[in-house]
Design brief:
It is an enzyme of class 2 (transferase). The protein is α/β, with parallel strands linked by helices. It contains 20 helices and 15 strands. Strands 3-2-1-4-5-8-9 form a seven-stranded parallel β-sheet, sandwiched between helices. Strands 12-11-10-13-14-15 form a six-stranded parallel β-sheet, with helices on both faces. It has a two-stranded antiparallel ribbon with strand order 6-7.
Length: 490
């Protein structure tokens, strides 16, 4: 009988790409891989659809199945609908996923791996008696925090929002200001956003195990917390498999012309360029004032830079700007900035090939929004980082990057709503010129070596993946035994 693993990715590029990269080692170990997809058109995300198309082209042995559409799909185009609308969408597709798994003869499906945003689907998988696993696309430290949050306020009536900057005492993690939690957790406890988020967190722990896109050596403290019975008292957490880093984009079959920034980087000295890039989806774009402060700081720093600029946010809620609109660089940046920095700086509109830029020998520092995929790309490239979190779990990532990991310094002005030019100048010089910056670079270099070795023979991630496959096989053997005894749960 063919051994099959079904992947069920989330509707976000940052979640889908690591899930698709999981397909390669599964194929290598003799598993057939099927991908169950919610129609990308549901989210109206061109980038997500493009990723799916690239995967299909570059991995012809992976089978894709788009689940039949459901009626009355929640509107996911508005930020106000997350996460409640997204979780409702997953619930509505549960029956479609159930029918798809049944059509595959459930016992031929050895495991289903669902995106952590789609953990609602684990109930379907369990009812069919199929081992179900999560792929957690953020850090193990964030997972350890998520595991503990549902019970943290159980005895008191205080909300996370009311706690403000009061540090949360989480087992195995450094003290975390409550204000660093995801925005949905800082809503009114009676709001749909808060209720949906708090209801979703315990479901992550209902899996048979969790694959985490991380390196165990990078997050030794967070991983140890997840494996300690004291993490969530009275509950044994499922196994954690650190199988990262899954970084970069999915391979494209045909070669494409190099982005304009790469030939420019070719002409710069080694490790001389500061790269500023704040994500590709437009959430949390900077204001016009903030863009000018960045420009002045870069100008005064005297260092070379490559800066990806997106259209600014609008102060007028009745006239919102398209975050993916083409920015008017001349109007947004200070007079004379482009002329003064000509030759040592390059401003790119909207997008740059981040992974390629970070791997380039000219790149010496990375100013990042602390999205986990970006963090891993910085680690695997051996580039020290300056943290500027904007949304989602990025404030939590920042805390671990600066503290436990020691791979970054923080632009603290974000906490006050504006990083001023003086801080931009000072932090760039700290990382590029100072002894502290050299120590930071050395720590990142050590992590890069660990990342490069992780998937080699005997490497930590390859060993963890082998443990995952052994557990899948063991679960399948037990299921077959139960079926033979007439005890199947399917």
């Amino acid at each position: 009988m063919e051994k099959t693993v079904v992947l069920y990715p989330g509707l976000a590029v940052s979640h889908c790409v690591p899930m698709m990269q999981l397909a390669a080692p599964l194929l290598e170990h003799g598993y057939a891989v099927s991908v169950a997809l919610i129609d990308p058109a549901v989210k109206d995300d061109i980038a997500f659809g493009a990723v799916v198309s690239r995967v299909a082209a570059s991995m012809p042995s992976v089978r894709f199945h788009t689940l039949p559409t459901v009626e009355d799909v929640p509107d996911l185009t508005q930020d106000t609908q997350f996460p409640a609308g997204y979780l409702e969408l997953i619930r509505r597709y549960n029956e479609r996923l159930h029918d798809f798994l049944c059509s595959m003869r459930p016992r031929s499906v050895h495991a289903v791996v669902v995106d952590s945003l789609s953990s609602e689907a684990l109930g379907v998988v369990k009812r069919l008696g199929i081992p179900g696993y999560n792929l957690f696309t953020s850090s193990a430290s964030v997972l350890a925090a998520f595991a503990q949050l549902p019970t943290l306020l159980a005895e008191g009536g205080t909300s996370f929002k009311e706690l403000g900057d009061t540090p949360l005492q989480l087992f195995g993690l450094p003290p975390m200001p409550a204000s660093h939690l995801m925005a949905e957790l800082l809503e009114d406890p009676e709001s749909d956003k808060y209720k949906a988020m708090m209801a979703s967190l315990p479901r992550i722990l209902e899996a048979d195990g969790t694959l985490v896109n991380t390196l165990e050596s990078l997050e030794a403290r967070g991983v140890a917390a997840l494996r300690d019975p004291r993490c969530v008292l009275g509950r044994v957490l499922p196994p954690v498999y650190c199988v990262g880093p899954f970084v970069g984009s999915i391979a494209v079959a045909e070669a494409k012309e190099r982005h304009e920034c790469l030939p420019w980087l070719d002409g710069q000295p080694d490790r001389s360029v500061v790269f500023l890039c704040f994500g590709s989806i437009g959430i949390g774009n900077h204001s016009e004032e903030q863009l000018r402060e960045i420009a002045v700081g870069l100008d005064k720093s005297g260092h070379r830079f490559l800066w990806v600029v997106r259209a600014p946010v609008s102060d007028d809620p009745e006239k919102p700007l398209d975050p993916c609109a083409d920015p008017d660089i001349d109007a947004l940046l200070p007079d004379g900035f482009m002329e003064r920095t000509n030759g040592r700086g390059l401003v790119v509109k909207l997008w740059a090939p981040q992974a390629d830029v970070l791997r380039h020998k000219a790149t010496g520092a990375f100013v990042t929004h602390c999205g986990w995929n970006s963090v891993l790309e910085g680690v695997t490239a051996g580039v020290p980082m300056l943290c500027w979190p904007l949304y989602a779990e990025q404030k939590m990532n920042k805390l671990f990057m600066v503290g436990d990991m020691g791979i970054a310094v923080e632009m603290v002005g974000w906490q006050h709503g504006l990083v001023k030019a003086g801080e931009v100048e000072a932090k760039v010089r700290l990382v590029m010129d100072s002894e502290e910056g050299r120590e930071l670079r050395a720590r990142v270099a050590a992590n890069k070596e660990d990342a490069m070795a992780a998937w080699n023979d005997g490497g930590s991630s390859r060993v963890a993946f082998a443990h995952f496959l052994a557990d899948v096989a063991s679960q399948q053997d037990r299921a077959c035994t139960r079926e033979g005894m007439g005890l199947s749960d399917a």
